[in-house]
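Archive entry: two folds, one per protein. Generate the first.
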Amino acid sequence: MEENSNNKRTYQVVNMPENETKNQKSNHTFLKNVVLPFCSGVIGAVVVIGTCIYVPRNS
């Protein structure tokens, strides 16, 4: 136990750059969680329906 009491720990303060300290995640939350999935779903539905309707027919 005496050996542990003699060991001193030193800590160093590290400053983060200013651009990393800002919370950028909250700026694009609505876009990532609502708009992007909605647009992807609409595009996917249009592709599937368009493929079903405009399948080339052998005449």
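Generate the second and append.
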Amino acid sequence: MQPLYNKDDKTLEEITKLFTDNGIEYFIKKKKGCVVKVHFIVKDDDYDIITAPEE
């Protein structure tokens, strides 16, 4: 049986560092073995910066 990963795959630590270093908001929903389910936090495509309420 062939493994699920190959030499070019990144570790969870490498991936989360990549997201964080690039300002990508995310959370890890689930991890099972070498498979991780990640959810990204994004704004709507219709988001209008001019009419958006101030934070």
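Annotation attached to the second fold: The chain has one domain: 1-55. Residues 1-55 form one domain.
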